[in-house]
Amino acid sequence: MQGHPPGVEFDAILFDFDGVLVDTEWAIYEAWHRTFQAHGRPLPLEVYTQCIGSDFDTWSPKTHLEELTGKSFDWHQLDADRQVEIRRDLEQAGPMSGVVPLLTELRRRGTATAVVSSSSHHWVDGWLERLELAAYFDTVTCRDDAPRIKPAPDLWLEALDRLDRKPGRCLAIEDSLNGVKSAKSAGLQVWAVPNRTTACLDLSLADRVLPSLDAAADLLR
C-alpha cells in the first residue's frame, strides 16, 4: 500500500465520525437486526454494511425488508422506535480507543483537524459536545453542508475548503468502504480503521488498514 511513511506530518487530518470516533454503528446495526428478526428475516452483517458511511440511496435496509417480506411498513413509527433503542444502547458510550490521546497530540502539534460525516449535525455535534471532543476540531462537515454525501467526495472537499488545505498532503481516517471510496475520490490519503461492524469489509482500497486509532497514532509520531 502507498502512503506517507511513518512520522511524516500531514497538513490536516480529517476523521469520519460514526465508527471512528464513537462506536455508534454496532448499536445501529443491532437495532436494525431486531427489526428484521421481528419480521422473521435475517440481516447478516455483510449485507447491512452496504449502507454504512452513506445513505439508503446506496443500499436500503427498508427496501430490503420490504422485498424479503412482500410487505410495506410504517417506517415513521419504526424509525422513531429504533432511535429510542439506539440511544438506550449508547447511553454509556465513550470515545473509541485512542481517540483522545491522538486528538490531544494533534492539537499540541497544531495540525488542522475536521470531522467529515454523512450523519446530521444534530447527531454529530451532539456527541462531540457530550463527550467533550468538539474543541479538538477546526470544523465539522455533515450531510447538509454539501450537495452529496459519501460515497461522493463532496463532504471531504467542503471540509478541505474550510481548512484551506489541498487534499494531496491531507489524511482521512475512515472505517467503511463508502467512506474510503469518497475520501480517495477527493484526492486524500486514506487510512482505514475497521471496527466490529465493518471488520468484514474489504478495505484494501485504503492506503493503510490499521487495527485501531492507537496504531494510527504510532504511525503519526
Describe the model:
The protein has a six-stranded parallel β-sheet, with helices on both faces. The model has no long low-confidence stretch (mean pLDDT 94). The protein has helices at residues 25-38, 45-48, 61-69, 75-89, 99-109, 121-130, 154-163, 177-185, 213-220, and strands at residues 12-15, 112-116, 139-141, 170-174, 189-192, 208-209. Strand 4 (170-174), helix 8 and strand 5 (189-192) form a beta-alpha-beta unit. Helix 1 packs across helix 4 (75-89). The chain is of the alpha/beta class and 221 residues long. The chain has two domains: 12-23 and 95-220, 3-Layer(aba) Sandwich (Rossmann fold), CATH 3.40.50; 25-89. The protein contains nine helices and six strands, in the order βαααααβαβαβαββα.
Keywords:
about 220 residues; alpha/beta; Rossmann fold; 2 domains; six-stranded parallel β-sheet; about 40% helix; about 10% strand
**What is the level-2 CATH architecture name of the largest domain?**
3-Layer(aba) Sandwich
Q: Structural class of the helix and strand makeup?
A: alpha/beta
Please list the strands of the largest sheet in the order they lie side by side.
Answer: 3-2-1-4-5-6
How many DSSP-defined strands?
6
Low-confidence sequence ranges: none
* Average predicted local confidence, pLDDT: 94
Radius of gyration: 17 Å
* Spatial shape: globular
Q: How many domain modules?
A: 2
CATH class of the largest domain: Alpha Beta
SSE pattern: EHHHHHEHEHEHEEH
CATH-assigned homologous superfamily of the largest domain:
HAD superfamily/HAD-like
